[in-house]
Each structure stands twice: as structure tokens, then as C-alpha cells.
Fold this sequence. Notes:
This protein is mainly α. Helices cover 48% and strands 6% of the residues.
Amino acid sequence: MPSTVVHVAFAGLIGVALLGERFDTRSILVVMGCSALLDLDTVIGIVVPGTHRAALHNVWIVLLPAGFLLWDAVIREESIVRARWGDAAPRVAWATLAGLLFAHVLFDAFFNGVNLFWPLHDRFYDLSGTLLVTDQRGLVQTFVELDGGTVADSTTRGTTENTHYRTGFDPTRDEPATGVERIFPIAATGERFVLTLAGYTVVVARIVEDRRSA
């Protein structure tokens, strides 16, 4: 699975792209830090088994704040967010939510799966697959396989009761962890290593540029 290090690097790339003129060290740290916080459900999963990739890896972690931001910007005459945190706050908030969605929730959903609609619907969805074009089958995608108009069993996994994602903090399920190797991944593939390197390099370069121009 993508590590927290990779998620944060990816979120950094998104933050640099979306913050624009609102970029500064504090704002990019907010974007990257919030992405890291989602992996706290790894620790929650030790106390409440099965909630790793469920408690904080779901669509509500993005949709509920997004709904509040829309209400604050469109419905209210005076923005609570702007009044409390300044004019840059809405841009930082939206960039943060984009980082949470693309760099973490969907990134994990398309890599071994997450419990997308927990707690309203307790089911892990694994959207791992490929998108390709062939000379015989045309455009082919295997991310979501449909069976009679419904999501096929190959896409859905178990529930929080019977699904476990191994982590360095909680490597086993229903068995003592004594003697079991605890693995804390940094970049498990070359592609993720390049993504991580690019993310942190771009963020550092942008911070240096921002400070020189101040």
C-alpha cells in the first residue's frame, strides 16, 4: 500500500499546483499535514479492529468539509472561514481537500481498496485495475467491473469485521504479533519512489522561491 511518506509527497504536488499566489510555508504544511493525519486510523484500527482504511479513509472526510465550504462561500453573506483565518483560508482549505481526495482516499482506493462510505455503508471497495487501448478490444478498463448493472464481487471486499490491512503497527489479525516482522514502508515501488522524490523536491523548491521573493 502507498505509505504516509508517499501520500504526503503527492499532496505536496497538489498543494503547489492549487495554492497559486496563496502559497507559503504554512499553507503547504497544512495541505501535506492533513494528508498525513488520515493514516491515524492505522492506530485507531488497533483499538477498533477493521477501521484502518475506514474511519478516516472515506468520502465523508472530504464531502462534509466541502459542503461546509460551499455553504460558507455561497449562502452566507460573510464568510466564517475568511473572518477567522484570513483571505487565503478558502484556497488553502480547497487545496487541502483536493489533497485528501486524490493523494490519499482515492490513491488508496485504487490500491487495495478502502471503506469508501463507512460508517453509513460498511463495505471495502478495491478499485485496483488498468486502463488501456487494444487493437482487438478497444478501450478497456478494469477498475470497476459491473455485473448486471451492479458492482461485481471482484470490486467489493469484506467489511470492517472481516477485513484487515497489515501495517507496521498492526501486522496480524487475531494472532499475537510476537516474532512477526513489522514493516513500515517508505516507497514500495520505483514509481512511488520517483513520485515521492518529485513531491518533496517541488515543495522545497517552491518554499525557497517563495522566501527569496518575500
